[in-house]
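Take a look at my tokenised protein here and describe the backbone shape.
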Amino acid sequence: LRKVTDAPMSQISAYYDEAAESAKKYGQTISDVIKNTADWQRLGYNLKDAKQLSDMTTLYQNVGDNMTQESASSSMVSTLQGFQLAADQAEHIVNAFNEVGNNFAIGSDGIGEALKRSASSMYAAGNTMEQTIGLVTAANEVVQDPDVVGTAFKTISMRIRGKIVPIYNENYSLCYAS
């Protein structure tokens, strides 16, 4: 954390106490919480926002099914940046993922995986995070594969907008469709 932050040492020292509280609250190790915060700092967030994002990532990891810190972080980063959301909206993301995951045939981890693949394309096409979650959830009811659903929505939104999309043929050779 010291390597990636420009916060004063007094602020970093105070953060370590907060990291210990977060670790206890979420059942993680202090080093995991600090590593998570450092990851968010590397993405350009200030220490206050990075701490909040670290807490939300850890919460998401805990409510998601079979999630690692890396997969939770990756999904959160893609969703926040893909939909150009502010750090203070991270709790809304976790709540939305969890609410849908508890009530429909897709886990909160599956929603994160689908949005990891489609968030920026769907945002560019004019969709909100909530609309995209609804589309992903409905499609996953049939397909039962969030990775495929996320990739499909990325491809569909790019094709609708007239972008050239790399695809792979049956031999797994890269080709392009327009």
About this structure: The longest strand covers residues 165-168.
